[in-house]
Amino acid sequence: MNNITGMIYNIQSYSIHDGPGIRAIIFLKGCLMKCDWCSNPESQKFSKEIYYSEPRCIKCGLCVSTCPNGALTREETSISVDRSACKKCGHCVEVCPTEAIAFSGRIVTPDEVIAEVNRDWSFIMNSGGGITFSGGEPFEQAEFVSETAKRLKKSGYHIAVETSGYTSYKNIEKCLDYIDLLLFDLKTGSDSLHKKVTGCSNKLILENLKKVYAKVPVIIRIPIIPGINDTEDQLNGMIETISRIDPSGEVNLLPYHQFGKSKYKAIGRCYKLDEIIPPSEEHMKNILRKFVEKGLRASIV
Ligand code: SF4
Ligand code: SF4
Question: Of 88, 104, 120, which residue constitutes the final position of a domain?
Answer without folding.
Answer: 104
